[in-house]
Amino acid sequence: MLRPLIAPSLIVLLGAAGCHRATPPEAANSAVSAPAIPVTVASVTAGVDPVREEVVGTVRSRLRALVEAKGAGRIEVVHGVPGQPVRAGDTLATLDAREWSARRDQAQAAREQADRDLERVERLVRDGAATPSERDTARSRQRIAAAAELEAETMLGYSRVVAPFDGVVTRKLTEVGDLAIPGRPLFEVEDPASLRFEADVPEALLDHIAMGARLPVRIGDSPESLEGVVSEMAPVADPTTRTYAIRLDLPRGTGLRAGRFGRLLVPTGAASGAHVPHEAVVRRGQMEYVYVVDAGHARLRLVRTGREGATMVELAAGADLGEVVVLNPPAQLRDGQEVRTP
Hints:
By secondary structure, this protein is α+β, with helices and mostly antiparallel strands. It contains three helices and 23 strands. Strands 3-12-15-14-13-16 form a six-stranded antiparallel β-barrel. It has a four-stranded antiparallel sheet with strand order 4-11-9-6, with no helix packed on it. The two termini are 61 Å apart.
């Protein structure tokens, strides 16, 4: 049985990757005898970084509504389509209103008849041909007829399904010919100008969040974070996931869209470690290294980076406090090469 052969160069590379002071493959071709070159350096310093736990969540609109018809009827015209901006009161759909219109006409005729009956009874009372009680009865019938007319007029207005506020139609759940009934959503409308971030936070992190707290939120792959303000906190946990629903108001004018994925960064403490400027770290694929100045020579060190700030990056392994590293290492710099510092 033949055994697979492992190239000696691969063995060297794997051994180097596991050492604290390992040297990447480039070091094998380093020119130790090359002339000294000037470099800029900085010291490995101690820094304190906030420790944050990430909780995934979603961007949602603060103002969101499922719009349904207030009365039953067949849909004749659909006006609203997804992506359409609407104003409060704009018509989204029109229902068949013939039955409601007939009821309105019937109620109007009954109210007009009640008006005439009241006028006749009042005239008879003035002439002494009718009693005040008959006049009161006529007035009651007139008020009932007027209320019935108003009810019929209101029902006729329900033939228009309207937008409840200024926003954008995000979903259309009906088509022409469908039967609209109360309780069945026809459209979804959201206000894209007012957004919030919703996340389900584990119980272990709940003590680090408070109403009104300002917490960073990172949307998608963006390295920059937004500041969200905690506006809602569920007082009880979800019985299935054992998490608490948290909502944070996001600033206006961010250009975000509802539905985007993001992460809530919950601060849980602080940690200290070695830090160097971003310019000191060289990245080649999955490999990260720095050049440490030792006795006037540049020594290449494999490192492992941690948390990154605006100007500094944490070195989780590979360099010690007080050591001096090269900033923006020149392309011709090699392991062991002599360098000159200012």
